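Entry 14. Structure prediction run on the chain below.
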Amino acid sequence: MDGVIYDSMPNHAHSWHQSMAAAGIDMEESEAYLYEGMRGVETIKLKARQQWHREISDEEAQKLYELKAKMFSQCPPALKMEGTEELMRQIKADGLKICVVTGSAQHTLLDKLAGDFPGLIDPDLMVTSYDVSHGKPAPDPYLAGMKKAHVYPWESIVVENAPLGVQAAVAARCFTIAVNTGPLPDEELISKGADLLMPDMRTLSHQWRDVPPREYTHLSGDDRRWQQTPASRHLPYQTPALPRYPSSYSPHPSNGQNPSW
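Output returned:
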């Protein structure tokens, strides 16, 4: 959501830096982009482990996260990311579902979604930090999203702007488009396994009809995966090789447990 749907990462970076400084933890604003996508309490536990050399409790981490959330709520309202709404309308016109998968627990942003994107965001197709025990870079958030949408990895396209989010989507075996809407170098996203790289959401919206590119073929049967075939044209984005998908994966198992393979 942050950095894909809303241009909210500068606010997050500022509030992370200020709140952690108040708690005695050194966290530069640039680090917020590296940890983006991780559940807030997990970020705080990581920084405490690095600098305080001890484990802190869930309660202590939650208290610090509430301080961060309070500072975030005092920031200027985040605007929609340019190109995102246009992209959503194309996705809906194609008969596809939109599932929002975010590590955020910021009510100020979550509550804005339905009002800012009427008819495009379904509250039942949202995964937040409240829905998973292990956030990005673990695949759990995207596995939960596929379960809610009743789709398989080879039926899914993930749009991510954060390195940890790309890592999570790749681990969930989804076709992953990285959109570099922040200050990190492109390599931070490519190195995590992104299948395509776009410079911004506006470009992705303009290129949507070519995603996934025609050089990728969907194979059916037990060997389900996206496979790259010889390119017939030059593409304006990166196209590294894609992984195989195990045939035992199920996003909606009969035992009601989290999807697994």
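The radius of gyration is 18 Å.
Filed with the rest of this week's runs.
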